[in-house]
Design a protein that fits this description.
By secondary structure, the protein is of the alpha+beta class. The chain contains four helices and ten strands. A five-stranded antiparallel sheet has the order 3-8-7-10-4. 27% of the residues are buried. About 7% of the residues have low confidence.
Length: 195
């Protein structure tokens, strides 16, 4: 009886440990910490981005030429096809920041975009997470046209993404080598049958 309880306990602890890797806690901002603060040291928003900034881009990540460019960029740089997931909620704590969480059946996301003003910022989440926080700070700090005033920048929308591996495209040299190998195998098989 004791061994079965111990096994159940170990399985539960292992499951909790594995599940814990999927959850990232929202990151609260602290004044004068050097992260996502105004020039005077006061906080930009209550929360900081929980993901790592990849880039800030003008335009809209959802549609038009900027969305197509975003897909091409991820295909070229990371060899993945970016797939938008609708199963992500985001909540605004203040005008500049808030939290996000995934909705089943999605277990976690690897990338997210925050759209505000005339720009969107793209973030990577490593490891993938089911919860986190967002901020428009990086767009505001970019300082381009349409990035708000001294009080920050209100979010337009939040988009969660999960990639799928793109099918590899064979290079011409690879095709030639495979073809030569197949011809060689065909030649060997003809020799065997002639004997």
């Amino acid at each position: 009886m004791k061994k079965s309880k111990l096994k159940i306990f170990l399985v539960l602890m292992l499951s909790a440990g594995l599940a814990g890797n999927v959850f990232a806690m929202p990151v609260a901002n602290t004044a004068n910490d050097g992260f996502e603060d105004f020039a005077d040291g006061s906080v930009f928003g209550y929360y900081q981005n929980s993901g790592d900034l990849l880039f800030v881009q003008s335009g809209n990540n959802l549609g038009g030429p900027h969305a197509a460019a975003l897909s091409s960029y991820f295909l070229d740089k990371y060899e993945v096809v970016l797939t938008e997931t609708e199963n992500v909620n985001y909540n605004a704590y203040d005008n500049n920041s808030g939290t996000w969480s995934v909705i089943a059946p999605v277990e976690a996301i690897l990338y997210y975009a925050v759209k505000a003003g005339n720009y969107f910022a793209m973030y990577g989440v490593d490891p993938a997470a089911a919860t986190g926080s967002w901020s428009t700070f990086d767009i505001w700090a970019h300082g381009g046209p349409g990035t708000g005033g001294n009080d920050g920048l209100q979010i337009s929308h939040f988009t969660g993404y999960n990639p799928s591996t793109a099918p590899p495209v064979p290079e011409p040299a690879t095709i030639v080598l495979v073809g030569a190998g197949l011809l060689g195998l065909a030649g060997l098989s003809k020799k065997k049958f002639r004997k």
